Request: fold
Amino acid sequence: MLSAKSLFQEILDDDESFRLFCSIAAGGEAQGGWENARIAALVPESERHMAPKITRHGADEDKHGRIFNALIHRRGLEPVPVPPDTDYTMLLERRGIGLAHDRLRGEEPLTVGDIVVYLAHSRVTEQRASEQMELLLRYFADHPDIGHAVKMISNDEDNHLAYCHEELLRYARAGHGPAIQRTLRDCALAEIRVYRDVSLAVMTHMGRILRWPAAKSAALAAGIHTVYAWERFAGWRRMVSLETPLRRDAFATATPAA
Reply:
């Protein structure tokens, strides 16, 4: 029977598919760490109070990248280059979502509007990350190899999502509500397309490694397209809502990044 658990188990059990999976995850987390570090360095003077939180966000992302690389090395393997068609972070940037990397490589301070864009982009992508880790947590929390890592990263992603909600609500009260909603909607609609494309690409690479029959690959592709159709119709709205999080001031109460 084809299920999310059996699919992930198959990927985890094979060294080649496992190291590709972890390499893709590590690359995305490392990129997120760099982005947050640059944003923290370029925060405008009026928003300097945000810098420690943005730095913390980036430190967590870096930590996650190191964790995924450690899982690869624990098996006596080495990371592999991330196929361009699976590079979620870069594909989002090419669609104009988030802050352009050319801007982040410079030294010109960001604006308050840029910080709003950063938070809106993060709120959407952290929703996805939190849901993905929740799925892994459901099936592999007690897994001897990845269970501890899954628990740690899932908790961090929930903290990140709570942080984005809280900060965006604060900026909305300060008068940025229309810009926030407009940016959230644009980010969400772009993200679901990129997520569909990346999911299809990842499944294609995994299918080649694991020698899936054509019928299995076709069924997985159909499932991905079905998820996208639902998200395009209504599911994207879960990514644009804002509510006071249960985890208040998440970065102040969370364990510091290792």
